[in-house]
């Protein structure tokens, strides 16, 4: 194999890397422009986009609302990451890492900022007392899988998804490397789900809510168009779990919030009340 790139002594950003996300990538952090975030009337203010990481939070909020938790009412504002909205001063104030999703809880006098999708799920589960088992054994197993997902998904998204779907050219080495890892992770999930209905055990929880938007969407072929390439159908337990969760009305509601691509009946740029979702879903043929 020939090595076509010789790294310089000190890396500098002298050319764009190419590909779908090249224009937003820079090796520094912090705000790039001044703009405050809108604040709606609901207790929870979400600033997000319906990527898998974004879907985790909107599905969680819809689950809580379906459980009757009125305090989980939320305004969901669109952060268009292709346009650089994540670099506004207002967004950076609630997430210094400039990545969606970010939540601001305005239910008390001083708003509480919550960033990192796993931290948001945990915050909401603890605040409202749902979707995280209370006994130590099941809670610990649920947390094991939540943290597993947070550590594993970047290989699926930033590794496999990036090189298979977004990179400007198909490069064999990274596609092989991340396909291997993605299939290994699917096998981990498949074995866990062979004897357990859900990741934490017998109860649907934040571990499933975190994981479905990634591995569920991959095996159902709704991200990366890679189900055939990965032989997703062979992970029968993951497929059973993915299909079951896909049927939940809460998942069908949450997955369309802050989504600005796909069919007309699955696009809702901003959500301020349940009626906003009802109106979009009513267009489904
Ligand atoms: N570890 C973070 C990852 C969030 C993340 O990667 N968000 C992506 C979209 S899925 C993003 O905002 N990217 C914009 C950017 O990198 O500038 C989390 O779980 O919240």
How would you portray this structure in words?
The chain has 285 residues and is an alpha+beta fold. The chain has two domains: 30-131 and 256-285, Glutaredoxin (3-Layer(aba) Sandwich); 136-254, Glutathione S-transferase Yfyf (Class Pi), Chain A, domain 2. The protein is 44% helix and 6% strand. The chain has helices at residues 52-66, 89-94, 117-128, 136-166, 172-194, 206-219, 236-246, 249-254, 274-281; strands spanning 44-48, 74-78, 102-105, 112-115. The chain has a four-stranded mixed beta sheet with strand order 2-1-3-4. It starts with 43 loop residues before the first strand and ends with a helix. The mean pLDDT is 96. The structure holds glutathione.
Which terms summarize this structure?
Glutaredoxin, Glutathione S-transferase Yfyf (Class Pi), Chain A, domain 2, 4-stranded mixed sheet, binds glutathione, Glutathione_S-Trfase, EC 2.5.1.18, Glutathione_S-Trfase_N
Task: Describe the secondary-structure layout.
Elements: E1 44-48, H1 52-66, E2 74-78, H2 89-94, E3 102-105, E4 112-115, H3 117-128, H4 136-166, H5 172-194, H6 206-219, H7 236-246, H8 249-254, H9 274-281
Parallel strand pairs: 1-2
Antiparallel strand pairs: 1-3, 3-4
Helix pairs in contact: 1-3, 1-6, 4-5, 4-6, 5-7, 6-7
The protein binds glutathione (GSH).
Region (Disordered): 1-20
Family: Belongs to the GST superfamily.
Pfam families: GST_C, GST_N
